[in-house]
Amino acid sequence: MSGEFTHFDAEGKARMVDVSAKAETERTAVAKGRILMSPETARLIREGAVKKGDVLSVARLAGIMGAKRTPDLIPLCHPLQLSSVAVDLTLDDAESAVEVTATCKIAARTGVEMEALTAVSVAVLTVYDMCKAVDKGMRISDIRLVHKSGGKSGTYEAA
């Protein structure tokens, strides 16, 4: 290993980064995102009246499953044995939105930012899928990393 963490080999070809020389540390990543909708769609979710079922419960499960499948979705992402994935969804009636927060934890040589971001993405897409029959104009927005700790680069907190 050259000591450089890159997705390119000596010939410029794509490869998975070699993290074998990195120390295993406790790592946590938190990502957030939201999906904005009509007040009527928010009401249906709140009242449990969406025909496809309990939107928030299904989206929570989908987000957890998405985090576990990240290396199948993101090229060159390391397959990880996640120690914890939590996906929280909150209905914001004032904004007619569902706020999603995903927290992923692991003890490993590489971080879990992509897993947290994937969990949020899959959760908001699931909300969209379950509600699109009544509101095709929903908008997914603000998917971002808000916290990262562990590893060589230390702690990151979004401003």
UniProtKB/TrEMBL annotation:
What top-tier enzyme class does this entry carry? lyase
Domain Molybdopterin cofactor biosynthesis C (MoaC), chain residue ranges per copy: 16-151
Residues bound to substrate are: L76, C77, H78, M114, E115
Alphabetically, the GO molecular function entries are: cyclic pyranopterin monophosphate synthase activity
Q: In the record, which residues are listed under signal peptide?
A: none
**Active-site positions, per UniProt?**
D129
Biological process terms in GO annotation: Mo-molybdopterin cofactor biosynthetic process
Q: Which SUPFAM superfamilies match?
A: Molybdenum cofactor biosynthesis protein C, MoaC
Per UniProt, the keywords (alphabetical) are: Lyase, Molybdenum cofactor biosynthesis
What reaction does this enzyme carry out catalytically?
A: (8S)-3',8-cyclo-7,8-dihydroguanosine 5'-triphosphate = cyclic pyranopterin phosphate + diphosphate
EC number(s) reported in the record: 4.6.1.17
User: Which pathway does the database say it acts in?
Assistant: Cofactor biosynthesis; molybdopterin biosynthesis
Key word Lyase present = yes
Q: Its quaternary structure?
A: Homohexamer; trimer of dimers.
Q: What's this protein's function?
A: Catalyzes the conversion of (8S)-3',8-cyclo-7,8-dihydroguanosine 5'-triphosphate to cyclic pyranopterin monophosphate (cPMP).
Which PANTHER family does its entry note? Answer: CYCLIC PYRANOPTERIN MONOPHOSPHATE SYNTHASE, MOLYBDOPTERIN COFACTOR SYNTHESIS PROTEIN A
Family, as annotated = Belongs to the MoaC family.
Any idea what this protein is called? Cyclic pyranopterin monophosphate synthase
Organism of origin is Ferruginivarius sediminum
